[in-house]
Specification:
Layout lengths: L4 H7 L16 H8 L2 H17 L12 H19 L13 H18 L10 H12 L12 H8 L9
Helix pairs in contact: 4-5, 5-6, 6-7
Length: about 170
């Protein structure tokens, strides 16, 4: 069996130093620094590329699903299955259900394994970094926050994959 296009692309890239991300935007002035960074320009470029890729496409049409997209869908299906396996807690609160903490604890344990199914083997060192982005994309277990404000982080967890994994 030959190398996949993802493996070929990964092999041709320069080496990268992966690291566990840490929060760098803590105060309003930090936002300006972020907006002037190359990382911000690359992230916005990624979002615009995704936007261009879907322009004029109908949701009702059949499309070829690449191996990479199927792997991403498999991860999302796993997360969805865990929701079914984690029933809501009967509680009086109108904000976030405490069962989210149980679900998130499972993600905390499995995140690196999940993202490893997407990352080409030659780039396995990226798994701990990308796992953090995945966990941030689904919310915060302390605040039980999994609302609509997480749209940006959803793209952030896919963004680090984009140089190596064609979508």
């Amino acid at each position: 069996m030959g190398a996949s296009p993802e493996d070929d692309k990964a092999a041709s890239l320069p080496s990268f130093k992966f690291c566990i991300p840490k929060k760098e935007i803590n105060m309003v002035p930090d936002m300006g620094k972020w907006k002037r960074s190359q990382a911000y320009a690359d992230y916005i470029g990624f979002i615009l590329t995704l936007n261009e890729a879907v322009k004029g496409k109908k949701l009702t049409c059949e499309y070829r699903v690449s191996e990479t997209v199927q792997k991403l869908l498999d991860v999302l299906n796993t997360l969805d299955r865990w929701i079914d396996e984690t029933p809501p807690v009967d509680q009086p609160s109108r904000f976030g259900n405490k069962a989210f903490r149980t679900w998130y604890a499972k993600l905390e344990q499995e995140a690196e394994a999940l993202v490893s199914t997407i990352i080409p083997p030659k780039l396995s060192a990226a798994a701990p970094e990308v796992a953090v982005y995945l966990k941030e994309a689904v919310g915060n277990s302390t605040r039980i926050d999994y609302g609509t404000g997480n749209r940006g982080p959803v793209h952030v967890w896919k963004f680090p994959l984009s140089p190596w994994v064609p979508v």
